[in-house]
Target: NADH-quinone oxidoreductase subunit K
Amino acid sequence: MHLAYPAVLAALLFAIGVYGVLARRNAILVLMSVELMLNAVNLNLVAFDVWLRDTLHAGQALTLFTIAIAAAEIGIGLAIVLTVHRNRGTSDIDRLRDTAEPPQPWDTATEDGATTDDTPTGEKAEATA
Model:
């Protein structure tokens, strides 16, 4: 088997993945592009393992580790994207640049940590005692 065919295919897959990461605005498509780049790396690992006729098959073993890491990455990444989409209403990366949590209507604390309710501190302590 010629090494050029899988190497060129892997380079094309990796280039498509880089384009997807840089050009896409949807977080799910960015995760899919990262997976495409990892698959290009896996293709190179297996192709060079076959080409070198490695008796330990180190390239194939590294491919299994890469697949396991990719599965964990997509699981955690998808959970984060779904949580952000639930909280913010969008998965557009350009709109998610501000990582601060939006203010909630029940959050009445001021900057110095005091609450804005009208109950004096002494009355609150007596009511809870």
Notes: The chain is about 65% helix and 0% strand. Residues 82 and 91 are 8 Å apart (CA to CA).
